[in-house]
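Hey, can you fold this one?
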Amino acid sequence: MNRSEAGKALQRALEISLELIAVAERGDVCLTLSLDAERLQLLKCVRAGLQPVEESERSVLREIAALNDRAVGLMEHRRRIKGRAMDMAAVGRRAVAAYSTTRSQR
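Sure. Predicted structure:
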């Protein structure tokens, strides 16, 4: 991969990173994984084609890293929300099980 192609791949990786934010906000785990894998392949190709890395390219890489951190944070937040919902459902099931044995005597 030459420097020009690597630059285009880096820009595509940035576009995917921006798309990942929107996908992570919606909570689409499958699409998030797919986009992340595509971005990883692009970044691997970029690494070989951009030696040495110029400051403008370093700036794009920093932006990609920041967007990645944000997407990971969004997915982690959704995971915690799901975990809390599952915990509350388990509490409800235990309560139903506990109270189902105590029937009113007539």
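Residues 3-73 form one domain. Let me know if you want another pass with a different chain boundary.
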